[in-house]
Design goal:
heterotrimer; A alpha/beta (289); B mainly alpha (248); C alpha/beta (279); A: Rossmann fold; six-stranded mixed sheet; four-stranded antiparallel sheet; C: Rossmann fold; 11 helices; 10 strands; 22% strand; globular
Chain lengths: 289, 248, 279
């Protein structure tokens, strides 16, 4: 089943002269892990807002096209808070998402909003704390937490609502490398355990490329590439460099070193370990010949 | 002087007082506040203060209260001096009594705020019939106080790094110099309020009128005991305050 | 002839007055004039606290900090700010004026410049940073990347000898980072010392050679990026990720003898290709 179907969507923010999204088509199957990337201002955040209803209800403007979830829910017909049990969204700035004085209450907030009874709430809060590995933070206040911990709390407070789709808009932008890796690992863990559909907008491609099913690249309001990670970081490298998207260095090295090899068999290495393996194998082959 | 405000900030802890129902603590604060108007005898007021301090010790928040005391010293001295001037320089004991009354009053409420989370206070407000949206605004404002003070410091640092000298200039010049500090702060916080609203909607705020509550207030044995204690203490102190001759 | 010391830090210890914990522990540091240096570490390692000593926002509890020989304990922030330009991470924490021009001129007005000269200077800097077209626009209307450039402009405008940038690449895309590197190279060619505080390892690997690594209030390593960023222990202690090419080079070290700065893509490729082609 298609979890998300975006068809012919165009959007112009009120007061703006430019169209932020131009005739965008995107289909996401249930259970996929999709990475959306592109230079600043390409429309990635705008696209995310179309999925959980912030556009067109919270952000006003001219809206064309359809966004349908699970073949039956037309997003434009619902307020964002009505879609909250289905689509969970995590934003870039951790401090501006956490509004309660303790982690436990923060996670409970969404559940209180949905009117879930107290026993079920307690079960879900415990479940979310455990899932994200943050039980030890349960009584802490947001300002006592590091950026990475804050984002994990934000994710927990969204996951507790058991959405079928999770959208994350640059969740690691404000985090240091160790925390970013931590958050990304936690997401992989979540994906494995819950089989939820995940859409993540990110710039740190080298950490995510090996994990996602699909890479969608946007530029100036349009989707210009929508392929598997291997395809994108092998054959579309020139396009990425032209629009200013960072290509993992391991892929660039691979392409330059093995330019003349058989393209069909190439599999770009996303980690330094994989790159080293490929280089060593190439040496073995050339030693034999 | 800002240290005075820290006596009204929730201090996380695990004491019998922390675990009391917030409504009991509100009753405590209000009765103690009322009690200090019964008599202007210093010994009576000091007794009240000592009783309060005992409770603060049980609540394990005494250090924070001392911090508040240090911070409010200037304020207390001011009250004392003003009273001396208005009541006549001979009435030292009276001026002291007014000062003590203020201190007891502050301490009574300090106890409430030090041991009760803003969310618990909002629960009480909801029970009183105040719509949840308003109590949420209250708890969120309190939650952001540490964040705001940190950001204020960053803004001051950034503008000082561009040569802004806040200490120099006459009164009007100094007021104007706060513009480069207030404007970024206000703009930033307004923008943040939009981000928060976005996050809240995305987590279902407004989904149903019948929201549920994670925490509930329940009157337990300790609460009943505490209430009885407060009532009897109030009766005793009120009687003693009115009927007994307290020295100075 | 040895270059002057732009920044000299000796036995610096610092903690906040209300706290028991030392935030900076026995920091010793020398940065020569005309260098480009990266100070790295995870959030909370003490990097921002350290740079706040460079313009006197914070004063040492023990030890001293000297800027071109001036002891920071004996000068005000306004005095030191003239030599050391500090650009903070989030532009929203400083933008306040009604036009981009006003914003840029702010520091000059504080330093008592003649208004006409101040305006000329501001216009010149804005042109250099590609912001001239916004001169009469409200700075709040600029995009994130443009705001960042504006904060740099508003510090460069008074021509400090040392420019310190706190996390300048956070939230920037690849193209913006590259343009930013060009700006700091240009400033450096004019003779200025540039200090970049960051946790962006890939950015440092691409553009900066001299690296200082901090962890938990101490300096744990200093030197060339190829030595420091590829040292497993140092990176673990500082909770930083090794740059991709650094890790790869480390693993290939048994076989390939890397010459030069192998953290730079072209050099890495050249060295590996040489090894692959050797018989």
């Amino acid at each position: 089943m298609r979890a998300i179907r975006i068809e012919g969507v165009s959007f112009k923010y009120r007061g703006s002269s430019e169209w932020a999204l131009k005739d965008v088509d995107l289909e996401v199957e249930e259970g996929e892990y999709v990475l959306i990337t592109g230079p600043s201002g390409c429309g990635k955040t705008t696209l995310c807002r179309c999925i959980n209803g912030l556009i067109p209800h919270f952000y006003e403007g001219e809206y064309k096209g359809d966004v349908v979830l699970f073949e039956e829910i037309e997003v434009s017909k619902y307020e964002p808070y009505q879609l909250a049990p289905i689509v969970g969204m995590v934003f870039q700035d951790p401090e501006s998402q956490l509004l309660m004085s303790s982690v436990e209450r923060e996670i409970a907030f969404g559940l209180e909003n949905l009117g879930i009874d107290r026993d079920e709430m307690r079960r879900r809060v415990e479940w979310a704390l455990k899932l994200l590995g943050i039980e030890h933070l349960r009584n802490k206040a947001p300002y006592e937490l590091s950026g990475g911990e804050q984002q994990k709390v934000a994710i927990a407070s969204v996951i507790a609502m058991r959405p079928r789709i999770l959208v994350l808009d640059e969740p690691t932008a404000n985090l240091d490398p160790a925390s970013s890796l931590d958050v990304i690992n936690v997401l992989s863990d979540l994906k494995r355990k819950l089989n939820i559909t995940i859409i993540i907008v990110e710039h740190r491609l080298n950490l995510l490329a090996p994990i996602v099913n699909r890479v969608v690249v946007m530029d100036k309001g349009r989707i210009i590439i929508d392929e598997s990670p291997e395809e994108v970081f092998l054959r579309k490298v020139d396009m990425l460099e032209k629009i200013g998207v960072e290509v993992p260095k391991t892929c660039l090295v691979y392409r330059k070193l093995f330019e003349f090899e058989n393209e069909e068999e190439m599999k770009p290495p996303f980690s330094p370990e994989d790159l080293v393996q490929v280089i060593l194998n190439a040496k073995k082959v050339s030693n034999r010949s | 002087m800002l240290r005075m405000l820290r006596g009204f900030e929730y201090l996380r802890g695990d004491s019998p007082i922390h675990r009391l129902d917030p409504r009991v603590k509100i009753v405590y604060s209000m009765t103690f506040a009322a009690l200090c108007f019964i008599s202007l005898k210093n010994t009576f007021l000091i007794t009240l203060l000592i009783l309060n301090i005992l409770v603060l010790i049980i609540a394990k928040v005494i250090k924070r209260w001392l911090m508040m005391l240090r911070g409010s010293l200037i304020f207390l001295v001011m009250i004392f001096t003003l009273n001396l001037l208005f009541q006549g320089l001979a009435n030292v004991w009276l001026a002291l009594a007014y000062t003590l009354r203020f201190l007891v009053f502050m301490t009574a409420f300090s106890m409430l705020f030090l041991t009760t989370t803003p969310e618990d206070l909002s629960l009480v407000m909801v029970k009183l019939g105040i719509p949840y949206e308003y109590t949420l605004a209250f708890t969120m404002a309190i939650r952001f106080v540490p964040t705001l003070s940190r950001e204020l410091q960053i803004i001051i640092d950034a503008q000082r790094s561009r040569g802004l000298e806040l200490e120099k200039g006459n009164f009007f010049e100094r007021i104007r110099k706060y513009m480069p500090i207030l404007i970024p702060l206000i703009v930033h916080e307004i923008r943040r309020s939009y981000l928060l609203a976005e996050a809240m909607e995305s987590r279902g705020f407004g989904y149903t009128r019948n929201r549920t509550y994670y925490y509930e207030m329940r009157i337990r044995k300790n609460d009943v005991l505490a209430l009885l204690g407060i009532i009897s203490l109030t009766v005793v102190m009120a009687f003693l305050g009115k009927k007994v001759m307290w020295p100075f | 002839m040895p270059r002057r010391l732009a920044i000299e830090v000796k036995n610096l210890w610092f903690k906040y007055p209300e706290s028991e914990e030392w935030v900076l522990k026995d920091i010793n540091l020398e940065i020569e004039e005309g260098e480009i240096v990266a100070i790295m570490g995870e959030n909370g390692a003490g990097k921002t606290t350290l740079i706040k000593h460079f313009n006197g926002l914070l004063k040492p509890v023990k030890g001293y900090v000297k800027v071109f020989g001036l002891d920071t304990r004996e000068h005000t922030v306004a005095e030191l700010a003239r030599r050391v330009g500090l650009v903070f991470q989030n532009p929203d924490h400083q933008i306040f004026a009604s036009t981009v021009l006003e914003e840029t001129m702010f520091a000059l007005k504080n330093f008592g410049w003649d208004l006409k000269k101040a305006e000329e200077r501001a216009v010149k800097i804005l042109k250099e940073l590609g912001l001239y077209k916004y001169i009469h626009t409200s700075p709040f209307m600029l995009s994130g990347g443009e705001k960042k450039r504006l904060t740099i402009a508003s510090v460069l405008v008074y021509d400090p000898d040392i420019l310190v940038l706190d996390e300048p690449t956070v939230g920037q895309d690849y193209g913006q980072k590259r343009r930013f590197a060009e700006i700091i190279y240009r400033i450096n060619r004019e003779g200025k010392t540039v200090i970049v505080v960051t946790h962006d390892v890939e950015f440092v690997a691409d553009y900066i050679d001299h690296v200082i690594v901090m962890a938990k209030g101490k300096i744990v390593a200093e030197g060339n990026s190829t030595e420091v960023l590829c040292n497993d222990e140092v990176m673990k202690e500082a909770r930083l990720l090794m740059p991709q090419l650094g890790l790869a080079a480390l693993m290939l070290r048994k076989h390939v003898e890397f010459r030069g700065n192998f953290l730079r893509l072209p050099i890495f490729i050249k060295e590996v290709r040489r090894w692959l082609n050797d018989a």
